[in-house]
Amino acid sequence: MFSAQQIRFVLTFNPRQMAPHFHRDTFCYKRNFRSFLLFKLKWKQHRFPFPPTHTCLSLLCFSPRFDDVVRRLLSLEMANQKEKLKIKQELLMNKILANPEDTNSLEARIVALTVKIRSYEEHMQKHRKDKAHKRYLLMSIDQRKKMLKNLRKTNYSVFEKTCKELGIEYTSPPLYNRKGHQRWAAKKALCIRVFQEVQKLKKQKRALKAKAAAQKQGQKNPESPSKAGPEAIEENQ
């Protein structure tokens, strides 16, 4: 591996002291030195008792041969945002999933999206006027809602466990959700008023029909024989 003297030289080297044409190459080497070290460690994994996960924490815990400079270079203090998110995602995967290597399942995608959402929230707290990341945050939240809805329908026990471990409060969306405005409210009031007037007209028509039917029935029925006078009875005899 690299000695502490070589690493200190790369970390403390000032390329401005050298020729101008040497400045760019040295800067790129210094910038990519950490990733090169990680690549070397992963390539030589069979020589050291490393766990199957290739995270910075595991490299530090299971590598007693490194000195303090290499440990600090490989620590989370010097890590970029991508590596930090990867470690967070692996920790949550181990908590929730039965098989952490399964990254295509619905709950695994929800975990990855939750880590991304939390990183967006941290970014928005520092940069409140960043409209692009705000849009990404809202789109990711909507996508996670759809995934949670599908997981709730397919596997409710895994859905409960995922929400509990991630600290998500799931509220079922309403059946009909539409933002009301003045034109829509006026149109709805007019429709209700027209419906009420139509019901009144129908009621009046039914009453007129019933009255006409009663009058017709009264005209067709003759007078009963009990009401006929005694003279009509004598004539029949």
TrEMBL record:
Subcellular location: Mitochondrion
GO annotation, cellular component aspect: mitochondrial small ribosomal subunit
Region entry Disordered, spans: 205-237
InterPro entries (UniProt xref): Ribosomal_uS15, Ribosomal_uS15_bac-type, uS15_NS1_RNA-bd_sf, uS15_ribosomal
Compositionally biased spans, kind Low complexity: 210-220
Major location (coarse): mitochondrion
Gene3D superfamilies noted in UniProt: S15/NS1, RNA-binding
Record's keyword annotation contains Ribonucleoprotein: yes
SMART domains the record matches: Ribosomal_S15 (SM01387)
Keywords per UniProt: Mitochondrion, Ribonucleoprotein, Ribosomal protein, Transit peptide
One BP annotation, GO: mitochondrial translation
Molecular function terms from GO: RNA binding; structural constituent of ribosome
Family as reported in the entry's similarity comment: Belongs to the universal ribosomal protein uS15 family.
Protein's recorded name: Small ribosomal subunit protein uS15m
Species in which this protein is naturally found: Ailuropoda melanoleuca
Gene behind the chain: MRPS15
